[in-house]
From TrEMBL:
Residues 8-196 form the DhaL domain. PROSITE patterns: DHAL (PS51480). It comes from Corynebacterium urogenitale. Residues 42-62, 204-229 are annotated as: Disordered. Pfam families: Dak2, FakA-like_C, FakA-like_M. The lineage of its organism: Bacteria, Bacillati, Actinomycetota, Actinomycetes, Mycobacteriales. One of its GO terms (biological process) is glycerol metabolic process. Residues 204-213 have a biased composition (Basic and acidic residues). This is DAK2 domain protein.
Amino acid sequence: MEENLDGPLIAQWARRAAAGLRERQAEINSLNVFPIPDSDTGSNMAHTMSEAVSSTEASDGTDTSTVTAALASGAVRGARGNSGMVLSQVLRALADTASRGPVDGKAVARMLQQSVEFVKTSIADPVEGTILTVLRAAAEGAQAGKESLSDVVSHALASAEKALEYTPHQLDALAKAGVVDAGGRGFVVILQALQDTLKHAGDTAVRKPEEVHSSAISEESTNATPQAAAAPHADVVGANHELEIMFMFDYSDQPEALDELRDYLDNAGNSVVIAQAGESLAKVHVHTRRAGAVIEKAFGLARVFDLRLEVLPDTELTQAPIIALTPSGGAAKVFEGAGAIALDLDTMDARDIDDTLAMFGAGPVTVLTNGRRAAGLLDRGHHIAAIETRSLVGGLAALAVHDPSNDFEDDLEEMADAVSAQRCVETTAEKMIPELQSLLQDGGELVTVLWSAPEVTEADIQRVRAWISAEHADVEFHDYRADGMGPAVEIGVE
């Protein structure tokens, strides 16, 4: 079995991965429920990998650095969706690794770890239970492998598969749908393709993947104006629609432009991913209801090209919505994953609040205060029922019993009762177990931990999980990473 990935073998792996994604496209699409249930993760990953493969056709297929650089360039430029952006960063890490020497087992392990770092840098608010979780597990598994290439890949694949199966325990949207993460499933397909390539090295009969088409609207906009770029959607998109916007951003003449754009997008949308494609070139991805403003801002900062817009599935609400007041960042993503609409009132003015409430029409809205200032929302004259959840874990307790099929008033009562029954505390990484010992003295069936890095690490959470398993085996344990939430840890016991 091969012990180095050379140019031809890497190209063969890429073709096999693209073909595998194409074959499993429908399966992966069916798993796509987070962050938007638009059933296109399989299509996006297959398209991104196909674009990467196409970029190698004009390159020297024998030179490892040339092949990997072409794969990375094609993937970044052709990336679609969150998952495609993540995939492009894995191939970017591969290219960087290949530029430093032979791609053996140790190099693949380093490449996977570098992929994690690239992706973490690209994603504004990483969420556990997604492709990032599966990628990190693969990197950790690779470190446990021996020096041989085949053993490293085998360990990485096994760890990724195990992490994929656990994703429903980390993301409520997956648990409710009874599925694993779609992007994580696609990444496992790619790792499986690498293992198969090593087993069948020399087999050049892997077919070229078919082009994956999309119904999305594309716009070659190097010379376009912001108004022209947005025009195709002017009579299609209403106030209750969200758009996916992707474009290349060349900031070589404005070095500070990327940071300014990143800060703007953090407040103007969600699912923000900014993937480096070069020293002063990036691929930008965002979901937003403010498409015109986002496009105008980007054009005003630097050179924008390859602009692509896609209308996301209709998000008009048929049930009374739940607004969760949270800080921006990881906590917001946790609540969005649980089905709430996360708002950070500290970043919103009166017009932003009115625009948000207008989306819900005249119907009632439930607000989980989560210990945050709510006056700016409650005094807007809308039919709002506030539940005084004094902590973020209290808000999660309310969401856990929320039943949209219930009568509105009955549902409010159920959520308020769940909050009242919960005992909670803010603490630090060092004091988690002592605090749990105290909280569980009076009994409990469920422990929920919200934690923020870097104050808390994965190792800290693993120690708590092991302690719960050993000392309170009948207690259910859930943890959610919520970087930037304020306190290092919030613990709730019910």
